[in-house]
Amino acid sequence: MALLEVQNLRVELKTREGIFPVIDDLSFSLEEGQNLALVGESGCGKSMTALALMGLVPHPVGRIAGGSIKFNGEDLVAASDARMRAIRGNDISMIFQEPMTSLNPVYTTGEQIAEVLRRHQGLGRKAAWENSVELLDAVGIPTPRQRAEVYPHQMSGGQRQRVMIAMALACRPKILIADEPTTALDVTVQAQIFDLLRDLEREFGTALILITHDMGAVVEMADRMIVMYAGRKAEEGPVDAVINTPLHPYTKGLIACVPHLMDTITEDRPELFEIPGIVPPLSRFGEDACLFRDRSDQCTQKCYECRPAEVKIGEQIVACWGAE
Amino acid sequence: MTDQTQPAPKARSPLAETAEMFLKNHAAVVASIVLIAIIIAAIIGPPLYADDPFEMVWAPFSPPGEEGFILGTDYLGRDMLSMILSGARVSLAIGVTAAFVSVFIGITIGALAGFYRGWVEEVLMRFTEFFQVLPTLLFSMVIVALFGASLVTVTVAIGVVSWTAVARITRAEFLRIRELEYVMASRAAGAGNMKLMFAVILPNALPPIIVQAALMVGTAILFEAGLAFLGLTDPNVISWGQIIGSNREAILSEPFAVTIPGVAIFITVLAISLVGDGLNDALNPKLRAR
Amino acid sequence: MALLISVLQRIGYALALLIAVLVLNFLLMHAAPGDIADTIAQDMGGADAEVMERIRRDYGLDLPVWQQLLRYIGNVAQGDLGYSFFFQVPVTDLLIERVPATLLLVITAQLLAILVGVILGVIAARRPNGFGSHMVTLLALFGYSAPVFWTGIMLLICFSLWVPLFPSGGMQDVTLEGGLFERVLDVARHMVLPVITLASIFLALYSRLCRASMLEVLGADYIRTAKAKGLSEGGIVFKHALKNALSPVVTLAGLQFSAVVSGAVLVETVFSWPGLGTLALQSILARDTPTILGILFFSSLVVVVVNLITDLVLRLIDPRIRTGAA
User: Which candidate from B230, B273, B277 shows the least CB-CB separation from C269?
Assistant: First the structure.
């Protein structure tokens, strides 16, 4: 049994024009200790997938309308609020894109880490504090005892993201979800944060779900990858296979945008280019058709009539009528 | 760029858009109608209604309805309805004029502070803070007491103590707008400081100031009512607060005599607040999401 | 150290504000028609020019204006606010006698308004389109639109006349016999209506602001983080959101304090509360200039002190102010 099994997940958002699926029939699984990357442009449902796993789909605008999320066999979609709170931050935890605003400005960093330990591990005040100092040390913050006493605004962006990581890994979770963890940071700091994440995640045996639009980060960090487009899975497979023989035109486009993808991460690695056209508006997400058709140069009549089915080709799964 | 099916929003004048937003706010529309009715009653009421508000027409403290006096009579036996109509004129006139005085002072100080920055701003904002520290009602009581109770003194006393909010808002808007491109462009085109301040920046700073000014009218009416209740008003005119104040001794024996004028103040100020809220929503669409 | 310096700065600034109030007082005294000599002469039923001259010399009115100003400020610094010809006692004595009643009323009302306002604001913010939220908006509108003295009168009619739960005025029942406890209870009973009246305006204001502030904070990234930590709803709202949402409310409460003092004048008059407000009205009607200016000064002093306290509270709440960032 896989650690995490997502089956036919459907998340709907209520907008002024109607109700539309931001995530439409998404299935995937994650093994213990495995690193999975969710890739795609913004607005493709990557972050919403993460929020759905955390049970944090913004209420009442959004709701999980169907499917299941099985964590160790337990369906999180059906779990009670109290049960979800016990899982969040303990078994599954998450770090966010904006380290500058994701920490509470009125509490010390030490307190914000210790809080998780008190909540989930039942530690006392002193033990939790000691533990959070150790965690700060583990994420590479110098003089952790002093830094535990300072407030977030007294730290740099990179340091704050380290604090976020310490907080997320405090209870040694089974799954860590990292939503664009380095996008808001300087390039030099980005590499450091990725190194840190990889080291800790190996040390703790945590499975990682990395959400990114950065193909370089995928190659660096992940074993498997899922390319998402307009709330649907476009392609899935081992990172090497997908990168070497992309089957979906969208994947090809994403890869083509990065010239030296297989090179190691360097400071001057160029940013991702955009594929011509944009992701369709949310109001078209539910259509029974290929949503990528306007941006693809190889589409046929069939792409307009029917949503492409997911087919398995070798180690990869792809949803495109043109794939072979 | 995109071939999406979303219709492009029709270009409309900002005024029409604001009006449309305002009309969608039902409470504000109803409040406007009530307010217009009050203003009309204040203008045409006294000449149309037969009784002189100063004349004793019936037994003191006759309850409403008795002998055809719809709202009864006061402690001197004067017709309450006639007094309320007459009082509406004074309350509204003082409210509007005092609000005008305070908006004028507030805009001047806020504009100078926000435009010139530096020591001018420092001095003017300290001056503003000084006025925030003074208990407003006490200060205007002192002014009225020292300089005599006339309509002019009361109006000035209210205006002089209540401009600080307008000054702060104006300054904040000026600080924001003076850095915008079109102001830079006007400056580069050789516009003088006066022109920049009052012809270029001020019109763009107006929306929040208009909202504040509308609310100021309500505050000023409340303020006048407070002063009049304490007896610090022109003894030769009737205002709503003054009716309450003069019947104060009979609060527990003849409650209607103090209730009725209070209702008049309450409805008027409530209508003004609702109109102000409506204007606020219509003029600052960004805030609507709240 | 930086904290100490900034606190000292605030205190120095507060002193400057108070001196400004004194200068204003002085100017008002001089701008108004008539002077102390006229008042005294009036009191004595008329005096000849020679007597007037002597009074003016006694009170230093023949000195240059700037010397009179310095003398006035010096006197106030020594606690001498002048002599009330109407009450026949020094103004300072008069104030000391009346201040406790006003402070009791004003502070209780303000604390009540903040407490209930924050609670209502939090309730409203948790369901921004719910019934409670609309009630808070409505309450805020009503509280703002009703003249405070009229609200007091209506409460008086309801809860003293129709349903005689509370006394109709005053601060204590002079005929009451009993121990300390009975007397405290008696004052408390007398306080209920005036405190509720005075709190009503500000309660409305604070609940509305707290609602807006909570709504903004609840959408912040760090609240999402708190949720991701698996904290309980209460922990998120009260620990993580409220402390951030409180700053604007505390700031406003500080700014509003001069309005609270103003409101107290009206409320005290309605309920015959023996405080500074009723004294202010009495002395104005009696044209007792030294007393009324003394009250103006003392109220400003109270507002300045409250602003200092507000400043300190803000520093306790928000470390960004404390450490001098943002």
Answer: B230
